[in-house]
Amino acid sequence: MPLAVLCAWLATVPSAGAHRVDEYLQATRLSIDLERVDLEIDLTAGAAMASKVFAWIDTNRDGEISAAEGEAYALEMLRSIVLIVDGRPVRIALVDTSFPKFRDMSLGVGTIRLRATARFPAAGAGLHQVSFLNTHRPESSVYLVNALVPANPRIQLSDPQRDHAQYGLTLDFRVMAGATTPLYRAFALLELVMAGWLLLRFGYVLAYDVARRLRPSRLVVN
Amino acid sequence: MRMSRPAWTARSLALGAAAFSAALFLVFPVTAESQQRAGLPPAAVSATTGSVTARVVDAANAFLASLNAAERTKCTFDFNSKQRTGWSNLPTGIFQRNGLRFGDMTSRQRAAALALVAAALSREGYQKVTDIMNGDEVLKNAGGGRTGGRPGGRGPGGGIRFGLDEYYIALLGPPSTTTPWMIQFGGHHLAINVTVVGSNSIMTPSLPAAQPAKYTLNGQTIRPLGHENDKGFALINALNAAQQKRAILNYAVTDLVLGPGNDGKVIQPEGILASELDARQQSMLLDVAHEWVGILNDEAAAAKMAEIKANLPKTYFAWSGSTKNGELAYYRVQGPTVIIEYAPQQGDVDHIHTIYRDPTNDYGATLVKP
User: Fold this and answer.
1) Structure pTM?
2) Which residues does B353 contact at the CB level (< 8 Å), separation at least 6?
3) Which candidate from B11, B19, B33 shows the least CB-CB separation from A207?
4) pLDDT digits (tens, 9 = 90+) for B135-149
């Protein structure tokens, strides 16, 4: 579904109540690298929402969140996210999960933590774009989404664009040209030294040859 | 014109060198990375005079001397233990703190603990801390507040507990004027982390918060974070329309973005750059930042403020929400060595969370080598 259509649909969703007590806070931080976007997603249900959220996850109703139930919920949540890099949707893979106890959730402070990553073909030097949209449980949620300053200094982010409720975020990022590893830099330097030496050698031979041609030719008398 | 062989050799050498330089530039362009590195501010250090550290160490030793062996064991941790990052703004019953609980101390021990906190902080900072603590006692007596949870409900030890008894103090590492150590003091709506390294003191990360944001005590109206609120609103209203357009985010921010558990993270800055503000507005921005920085003792705060001022051209001010004082609004100050967030909770202006971080020097990272 195109992002614009999703945004339009989300705009029709009634906003949640004014108090976190009855809200589901979904906070996402995006970390952009040359070949992937890492997602840190923290989900905190307000105290009045806890039973409802717990029931979404504890599908066998035994009062515990099993590993399988946790993973199933995490995957369901990730399916609600649309991540597009340079105009192409990218698949988000679950990396890790952690679920709080129901007691903590019922107090409105237990946070579900999901960690995921999305890989894409390496972004070359130049301008690129990432779009993120979270459509998970919009009827009862409030959202935060932010991009972290990239660890890779070759990547520079522009000002992110968001909708008012922070369902989504779009930002351009520029990949600067440059070497990536010390080994690469060492080889590049070696190549430069060799190129420089060849240039000097070529310049010298050329100059010597030209100079010799410009000299008046000697008459050879037998 | 004829040239000698040495002259031609020199010219070809120069030509080769120029070509080599050009090739070098093409392969190693001057990237933003290298420019940033060159322009990096010096390591974020808040220098205090040795006498301040000595005073804090004396206060810490006096507090430790007031404890018996079991209490000392409960209160002290290794400097590099997990306790360093094990702080929270949540009340007892939801978050279990380590350290010595005020409710378990004698009045003499409490006085010694508070004397230590006072020695590490400024007069205004200590007042702010006690206003936050007294506010929590008011919250306890009011039954927990509208958005603060339910006292006496579930939780270890009989449920959520508020009030003055529920503040904890812990010392990480032996108090010293030379080696690193740390004072950790907090409870509901308060987390003060002061790392002391020689003559330096660092108070990041820390989380001062308030609920209620306004209360009456002994006939006096107290607003623990009143200056933070009022100075923020004064600054946003001091901006002209064009500046406000740059500063005000077009989206709602419903909570702290870099609250507890987000150590070391730096979000992409947004809002208006301080370099786009005039001198008076810049001064107002520094005054906003001082509300957090100035919690720490005056000498350390002055050094930190000098650092923030030096980085002011690279510092952003972002706002979300109403510009009318008294209504809901979130704001953020973000520079190379400071991140401050002010965030009303759950649509309630009577319940404020804030965070103060230094992404380069939380817990004195630049001074404490592993």
Assistant:
1) 0.80
2) B89, B189, B207, B209, B255, B256, B259, B341, B343, B344, B345
3) B11
4) 999 999 888 754 444
